[in-house]
Design brief:
199 residues, alpha/beta, eight-stranded mixed sheet, 8 strands, globular
Length: 199
């Protein structure tokens, strides 16, 4: 079975919208695109390199796929090579083919198709960006691990990682390190149901 791993940059108040650039996603009047920039350092680059330094395929929403497809095919570098070499599974109601090699499009009952995809042989499926797709994955309990980068900033509004799709679920912290700039890199694995009690 293939694991689905969600890699997300989030603010302290859970916003994941447009971490990389001012014009990445301005929907809803979002004004803080590129909010991760002041906190990136060599330490963060090393962690990201480790997370993407082994075989993986990509599971993407349509908007994130469009952003990636416009950028990565022109970048044959240490980061670009594994992304370009990965199979890109894309949830889309309209696209059926694309010039970017190794792109596969999922339509119809996307959750069922992703569940079937998890049963196939192959490397882990990494989810980058793709806020709407993540809500579908969370709703159908398809996320095996969360690799979060938690930045020391609150944004007040914007698309949240845990929005309408999240179900009650427990997770176990498997790894946690902090960068000199204050970014917490925390990895969590799915760990059954929520347990309650009295303190």
């Amino acid at each position: 079975m293939r694991k689905i791993i969600v890699l997300s940059f989030i603010s302290l108040d859970g916003v994941m919208q447009a971490p990389g650039a001012p014009d990445e996603d301005t929907s809803g009047g979002f004004k803080f695109g590129g909010w991760t920039f002041p906190y990136f350092d060599d330490f963060g680059g090393e962690v990201m390199g480790k997370q993407m330094g082994h075989p993986f395929d990509l599971l993407l929403g349509r908007k994130t796929f469009d952003i990636f497809a416009a950028y990565w095919p022109q970048h044959d570098n240490e980061v670009g090579r594994p992304i370009n070499g990965a199979t890109k599974y894309v949830a889309s109601t309209t696209l059926t083919e694309h010039a970017w090699q190794k792109s596969v499009f999922l339509n119809g009952d996307v959750a069922a198709k992703i569940r079937d995809l998890k049963e196939t042989d192959g490397p882990e499926l990494q989810v980058h960006g793709s806020g709407n797709l993540i809500q579908t994955l969370l709703k159908h309990d398809l996320v095996d691990e969360l690799w979060l980068k938690i930045f020391p900033v609150t944004l007040g509004s914007g698309k949240k990682l845990f929005a309408e799709g999240a179900i009650p679920a427990a997770f176990t912290l498997t790894e946690c390190v902090t960068s000199p700039s204050g970014v917490i890199f925390a990895n969590y694995s799915r760990a059954g149901e929520v347990r309650t009690g009295t303190m």
